[in-house]
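Chapter summary example.
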Amino acid sequence: MTSSVLPSARSSHHAGAFVLCAALLGIATVLGLERSQNRPRSSPPSPAGADYDEAVRLYVAGHFQEALEAINRASAADGWSAALRALAGWCRLRAGALAAAEAEFRAALKLDAGAVDPHVGLGYVLLRRGSSTEAEDQFRFALRRDASNLDAQKGLGLALRDQKKYSDATQAFRDALRLKPGDAEAEGLLQQALAAGDGGREERPRGPATGTAIRVVAQARDGRFFVREGGRFRPLFVKGVNMGVALPGRFPAEFPPDEATYRSFLSAIAGMGANAVRLYTLLPPSFYAALRRHNDAARSAPLWLLQGIWTEPPAGDDYDGDVFVRQFRGEIRRVIDAVHGNLDLEARPGHASGMYRADISPHVLGYILGREWEPLSVRTYDGWFAKGHRESFAGAYFTARLEDGATPFEQWLARTMDFAVEYETGDYRQQRPISFVNWPTLDPLRHPTESTAPEEGAFLRAMGEEETAEMIEEYGECEDCVGVDAARIVPTPDARGGIFATYHAYPYYPDFMNLDPGYSRARDSKGPSNFIGYLRDLKTHHGAQPVLIGETGVPSSRGIAHLQPQGWNHGGHTERAQGEIDARLMMDIDEAGLAGGVLFALLDEWFKRNWMVFDFEVPAERKPLWLNVLDPEENYGLLAARPGATSWKVKVDGRAEDWNGVAPLVTRPEGGPERPFKDGYDRARTLRGLAVTSDEAYLYIRLDVDRLDADGDGAPDWGKVAYLIGIDTYDARRGDHRLPITDKAVSPAGLEFCLVLDGAATSRLLVDTPYDLQTKRHHRPYGSVENADGRFMEIKVETNRRRVGRDGTVYPAQQSSRSQLIHGSMDRRDRDSSTLTDWAARTDSNTIEIRLGWGLLNVTDPSSRSVLSDDPDNLKNVGCTRTAGFRFYAAAIKPEGAAGGRTPIEARLADRLPPGDLAQPSDLPMYAWRGWDEPTYHIEKKEGWSILKRAFEALPAHREAP
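The structure predicted for these 962 residues follows.
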């Protein structure tokens, strides 16, 4: 047992009607014991009665031995009664003496076979012994004698819970709450039972609120939202934040259970100046309780909730299928019940559950149905009706008419929204706006630069080119092949909350955002902005129908997945730049006359996987255990979820104080370089030590040099010296057995990667050619290959594939380099501070620090030490193998050509670590890190937070309708 029942009592020493229940385990909260008003009393009270009262007082105070002494005095004065024996039993039980407690309870039953309380006490003794079935019998007996016995009712629930009869336990705790509404213990136990259950049963404690006037909480009309304030409606410009709440180590359905976590998130969001939060699905009851508490305290500045109602597409794209319709409408009902604080929901796999009692409906701005619908799914569904008879949809609250051009999918959406509004109106007598998720791929506009796959194929054939399958996986054949239009769903006069259009719109995707000539000419108040050009088109199309941008933003990842003309790329931003761009996007939403915007997202979420890295994060089930800084999807958060319990393990700034607890892999404290050149720079080419450590996001390398600034000019001696660090990630036979220089520099272990540090602007990480992902993307298997040619290459990815517009215009492909290393500092006090810092070199410490994201090194899962390596006989999925660790080979060289050139580098070898003859792979030091099954992390505001705070505060909360 992990919980307890709070004791209550009605006592009658002389009448033998004593009923007492004690807190047994876990929670030790004690309610006051009250004397029955019906107990006969003598005048004056007998000595036994006084001793009995003293025993009860001592029991409540937790002084069980003293209570037993008072009981003995009472029995000596007036003899033993069932009530005294029962009270003695509770004292023994609370003291942990189970055998003695049982003896007392059974003695009480011999004195009064009809007494209820001894049966209750025996039930708790049996629970303590793990005999839940026998305990159930005792509690049921007690309830047959006294159906109003709260303690027996809660005990019955515990016995059923311990038998894993969660649905029955849930009902028992509900019955306890009917006996005593608001009982905190019963509420907690009910919450536990609902969370543990697996039947998905649900109950609405309150009945429908019929026969009352309809309260309109908010409206969507005239291009804006309107909310009720002080008896009238005022326009509200939405400044929102999407609340993804998957903490590191967790998948999205593994919600934080505690209210404190949600309260801290909500407080931060409100403190930034936001006035709304958006959820994609139903969260646990603790979130809604936290929101209720927050808004009760905020009063005049509440956080409005945009509540999502999630569904996956139906099997076979059958949106009218009985099972799908029943399941989705059931979820709609559950969400509406939950926000009204009227739902008890047993656990369901992948869903929140529990006891929803916080009524936050006064601050629910609207519902948003569904997810980003798949275009091929919509096209398939619409296609079923192409030749058949179809009628307009005319519901009580929404219409979607054929004469207005409504498609079958739009009619299905109208029916679904009609159901939702009808349910909330009927059962709760409330209305508010409603919407569905849309995105540019399914917008109702036609984009001349965005050809479909058949259109593009026709152009390629006309140009004499073959169609190939070598297309980036992000793009399907249907980016502009079908549209869904909220403007064709019209509210009736009875839908007083109205309808709004919701778009997930980012500045870099799809490609028509970047390529459309009209968008390229668009400008906002600060300059060129393709994004505002698109927003203005949406506004023009929807007219008076409010348009909400339900998702927008850019991520602060190192990796870039898509390029954008203004540099508002899908990744590659510092945290400050992220804040500045997000602020600009919100400004554009306002300038375009839309109803508001919701930034994506509150928190960095490690479980996410972007198309560019998706295949290379295996095993997939371990993805939440580590942060891939190459993955933009993991790094959208306004709050950072960083490795380390309290701070970064290493703050790359060149100062090296973070390394005190890290033992070097190799050192050479004395002597000069292996090959001196006597040109005044030999000390800069003398290597002193190499150390390596890691965390859930990065591999960290520290290289110590005798003197980085040999000529004393205050800067490293680039041009006279460069440093190489070869990395063997697995299987020492594989990889390149030569460093990438023209001089002889053989490595006993094959190297998959090589760091080249030759200047602040030119340093880079190179990959051995056979192990490059871009080269092998369509020519698998992936894997390192044994060679000794010293040819390492730049790591590039194709972010924007070549496209052909609908008029035949060819738009060339674009690539991004992952090799370039950003020199700077992670210390915000430094002038070159940057959250994207890859390396730092300081002449005062003679130290170079580097951090490399695990994905850069083709590590597919650092938590299990898995690295990329295909099985040639099984190429269905990308393969991986477990490495024993990484080996390192460092060298100082004397460059004889310009920095940043091709490999092999024109240079002469000066020094090495480890020094001496290197004949075996074991001659190179190995770093073998420990795997993990639970990550360490800390959450903190990103550097862009203050920028967004200023931007949100500058945006009007109440923008009048345009």
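To summarize the output: The domain at 648-932 is CATH 2.60.40 (Immunoglobulin-like).
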